[in-house]
Amino acid sequence: MHAMKVAIAGSVQEMEAVKEAWPKFSRSLPGPPGANDQPQFFQYDVRGGVPSLALSLEDLMRGARERAESLILQFRRERTEADYFVGFQTGFHLTSSQGPRRLVFLETWAYVTDGHRSGFGCSGGIQIPPKIADPVIDRGIDLGIVMDRIAEETGLPLRAGLWGLLGREVLADRGACVTAVLAAFAPFFNLPVYK
Predict the structure, then answer these.
(1) Residue 161's pLDDT band (boundaries 50, 70, 90)?
(2) N or C: which end of the chain has fewer CB within 10 A?
(3) d(Cα 60, Cα 108) in Å, to the nearest integer?
């Protein structure tokens, strides 16, 4: 029996999120019974044309899509195959871009394709306070430097990334990735609605 192969353009943590999400929908994916039960997951460090920290909704979606599409091209060059390609992008979604009323949210987006069909999904968003967003957006200070400073000021650990820092580890990067990938796989596991 053919083992399902899922290629993830992202971090090890993002691959672990796909593994965590998989059992929730895999039996509803097309294929012979049992084909989706024991998939193989492969993680690749693939960059798209978007900076590592996207600063707009368009860049979040484009970054996730470009990572998956770059992985498809890499697979074609290597003459190898996968059943699904998954790309992730985390970054800032600015809903109002000017002044003191600017609202900025942290979001994670996923894009899934089998080479023919595709789907986008996103995590929820958590509002980013101005003391984190403004230095990154307005002055170009690296997010890691800002996060270190905030963690030192507050005494909060950075174990769960920016999601964990903002959500006091009730929310974490991995949970955001799980939500995003579940939503992105919906067109595949819910074919009657998406046909």
Answers:
(1) confident
(2) C
(3) 8
Q: Which residue has the higher pLDDT, 104 or 153?
A: 104
Residue in this structure with the two tokens 């996103």, named with its chain if needed: 122
Number of domains in the chain: 1
Q: Residue 74 burial by CB count (10 A; 0-12/13-18/19+): exposed, middle or buried?
A: middle
What pLDDT, on the 0 to 100 scale, is given for residue 62?
A: 95
User: Distance between CA atoms of 96 and 104, rounded to whole angstroms?
Assistant: 8
Higher pLDDT, 42 or 159: 42
Domain with 33, as residue range(s), is 5-194
Q: State which H helix or E strand residue 187 sits in.
A: helix 173-189
Q: Are 121 and 179 in contact (CB under 8 A)?
A: yes
Pairing of β 84-96 and β 118-122 = unpaired
CATH number at residue 167: 3.90.950.10
Q: What is the pTM of this model?
A: 0.90
Task: Please tell me the predicted confidence (pLDDT) of residue 75.
Answer: 92
